[in-house]
Write a structure and sequence with these properties.
Elements: H1 3-9, E1 15-17, H2 25-38, H3 45-58, E2 62-64, E3 67-68, E4 71-73, E5 80-91, E6 101-109, H4 114-128, H5 131-139, H6 143-156
Parallel strand pairs: 1-5, 3-6, 4-6
Antiparallel strand pairs: 2-3, 5-6
Helix pairs in contact: 2-3, 5-6
Length: about 160
């Protein structure tokens, strides 16, 4: 995927930094769904939240390496909606490697977009587990710094 595309789905207003105390997994997902609603990427907040939580109950989306990619499908999104949470202190996301998660990328797509859904998750998994990128994101103090770090790191990969 092109850099431009990544920067479009993770625009600055779709990025949050979560200071301590750490949230639990459900509250993190809830907050990121609120970002989707506040940035007008979805039309029905509660339905989207339930779709993502239902998927999370099937199997954790804490894939390891400090990354979680909670995701779901909903008719209340046009094509694809995304929000990014950075947790500098780390949080328990019941990750597969049982280590703290520092970056949470929420993805919601329309049910008619299964290929896009899988492609985005695959690209995020590949790019966001890079230790240099994660460290840069964790050190960021503002969403604009996170965005700048993303832009710099992804332009080099």
């Amino acid at each position: 995927m092109e850099l431009r595309w990544f920067l479009e789905i993770f625009q600055q207003e779709r990025i949050c930094i979560f200071p301590p105390p750490p949230l639990d997994k459900e509250e993190m997902i809830r907050r990121l769904v609120e970002v989707l609603k506040s940035t007008q990427q979805i039309t029905e907040e509660e339905e989207v939240l339930q779709a993502v939580l239902e998927r999370e109950r099937c199997m954790t989306t804490g894939i390891g390496g400090g990354l979680a990619i909670p995701h779901g499908k909903s008719v209340f999104v046009d094509s694809l909606a995304a929000a990014l949470g950075v947790v500098p202190e780390g949080m328990d996301f019941e990750a597969m490697d049982q280590r703290p998660v520092f970056v949470v990328a929420l993805i919601v797509s329309h049910p008619t977009q299964p290929h896009l859904h899988l492609r985005v998750i695959s690209e995020i998994s590949k790019r966001f587990r890079l230790p240099e990128l994660q460290q840069s994101l964790i050190r960021s103090q503002t969403p604009s710094e996170v965005f700048r770090s993303l832009k710099e790191a992804l332009s080099q990969s």
